[in-house]
Design brief:
106 residues, mainly alpha, Aspartate Aminotransferase, domain 1, three-stranded antiparallel sheet, 3 strands, 39% helix
Length: 106
């Protein structure tokens, strides 16, 4: 298998970004893809299935992406506030990058 790069170009019309799509994939039980790479594709999502991925797993991913595309049109707020079923909700990634906590404290 090889990688595949998606763009958030069409979802941008609904105010949905590649970050929103990645976070929504978590609600489908899927690991979020590499984001914003390669740099030549704006809003890139790079999918890199390994040789051990089954056809069934690839089909589940495709169906999730189709559902997310529909959700972007019909209910973009659902994507902008994702993930919804994870223990920890959307983190403030800018704050985490600027003020990293590099050790665990009780």
């Amino acid at each position: 298998l090889h990688e595949c790069v998606f763009s958030d170009k069409y979802q941008k019309d609904y105010g949905v970004t590649n970050l929103d799509i990645s976070k929504r994939l978590l609600d489908y039980g899927l690991h979020p893809p590499t984001m914003s790479f390669p740099l030549i594709v704006h809003g890139a999502l790079m999918i890199e299935p390994t040789e051990t991925e089954s056809r069934r797993d690839l089909d589940l991913f495709i169906e999730a992406m189709k559902a997310i595309a529909r959700e972007a049109k019909e209910n973009p707020e659902l994507l902008r506030t994702a993930p919804h079923i994870t223990y920890v909700r959307r983190l403030d990634e800018v704050q985490a990058a600027r003020n990293p906590v590099l050790r665990w404290e009780k």
